[in-house]
Design a protein that fits this description.
Helices cover 19% and strands 26% of the residues. It has helices at 47-50, 85-94, 135-141, 159-162, 183-190, 196-202, 256-259, 271-287, and strands at 52-57, 60-65, 68-73, 101-106, 109-113, 116-120, 151-153, 178-182, 206-209, 214-216, 220-224, 233-239, 242-246, 291-293, 302-308, 311-316. Residues 25-44 are annotated as: Disordered.
Length: 318
């Protein structure tokens, strides 16, 4: 998630076992012994432990996949640029958040639909600004091998979203997947010499689409959200009458980005346009009562945008 002043890319089961002891009742005069460590129940691993949180979109099976975290200093250089420090601190304090550091999660989305396995963004892999690279383990916890992924939907080409496209040896991490991204984003990626190796690796797999295209009709539509990068896209995933809006980088922080969408973010290529786009999509999420998947909000990033006074607030599912 680099500044717009640097290259777009600088880098190349959920189940536990219960151990039950079956024994004859002890003699009436003998007190029943307390369970020992050997006979006590073993807790099921949590989604936080495995990095895979299961949920549904209508009839579709879906997983939030934890790849890692990014910590950003709250120093006015990245978020809330030009805003009074005390005002930013007050907003964070009111939400029970630390005022020195902004914590961002990284969580690609997995969706299964019939014989298709869809992955939305690929995490940060080994990029230097993130503590990341857990996506392969999270996929395994969800019961998916990389070769099973049929479609990858890239919101934009910042390294915390495309870093996992290639393995450490440079080979495709998802060898059988078609890579979908908007045509403006693809053209910008190809035009950046620093991304030559990535472009060469994924070019045979890329299917570029026009902004707002119905990519997989009835299943996945693109939603153009202008300003962050040349062709940034959110995605709307449908099943029956259920919809999930995948935000991409429309909003980064669950307090600042939602409650103050007009505050400038250094990551945005065109800050003025991104601010207008952010507010418009948040308003649409409220108007349509959309279920939202936020890539950088606290794991698992599921919830809704609610009206709060003249602005908005994030209401997580849990």
């Amino acid at each position: 998630m680099p500044s717009n002043r640097v290259s777009i890319l600088t880098v190349a089961a959920l189940s536990g076992a219960l151990l039950a002891a079956c024994s004859r009742p002890p003699p009436a005069a003998t007190a029943e012994p307390a369970p020992t460590a050997a006979t006590a129940a073993t807790p099921a691993p949590s989604a936080a432990d495995t990095g895979a949180f299961a949920f549904r979109i209508g009839a579709l099976e879906a997983y939030a996949l934890k790849d890692g975290d990014i910590d950003v200093a709250n120093d006015g250089k990245t978020f809330a640029i030009g805003e009074p420090a005390e005002q930013v601190a007050a907003l964070l304090t009111a939400a029970g958040q630390p005022t020195d550091t902004l914590h961002l999660s990284i969580q690609p989305l997995l969706v299964r639909s019939g014989d298709r396995t869809l992955l939305f963004d690929t995490g940060a892999a080994g990029v230097s600004f993130a503590r990341a690279g857990r996506l392969p383990a999270a996929l395994k916890a969800a019961g998916v091998e990389p070769a099973q992924v049929s479609d990858i939907f890239i919101s934009h080409a910042h390294p915390d979203h495309v870093g996992g496209l290639r393995a450490s040896d440079g080979a495709l991490a998802f060898p059988n997947a078609v890579v979908h991204l908007s045509r403006p984003e693809w053209e910008a990626l190809k035009g950046d010499a620093g991304n030559a190796a990535l472009v060469a690796a994924i070019a045979p797999k890329v299917q570029a689409f026009e902004p707002d295209a119905a990519i997989l009709p009835g299943l996945v539509d693109a939603v153009a959200v202008d300003g962050h990068t040349p062709g940034h896209s959110a995605y709307r995933i449908a099943s029956g009458d259920q919809r999930l809006l995948y935000l991409g980088d429309t909003a980064h922080h669950f307090v600042i980005s939602v409650q103050r969408p007009e505050w400038t973010v250094d990551y945005d290529r065109d800050a003025t346009l991104a601010e207008a786009s952010r507010r418009a999509l948040l308003q649409r999420a409220v108007d349509e009562d959309m279920h939202v998947y936020a890539v950088h909000f606290p794991f698992p990033g599921l919830g809704r945008i609610k009206r709060q006074g003249e602005g908005f607030a994030w209401a997580p599912d849990r």
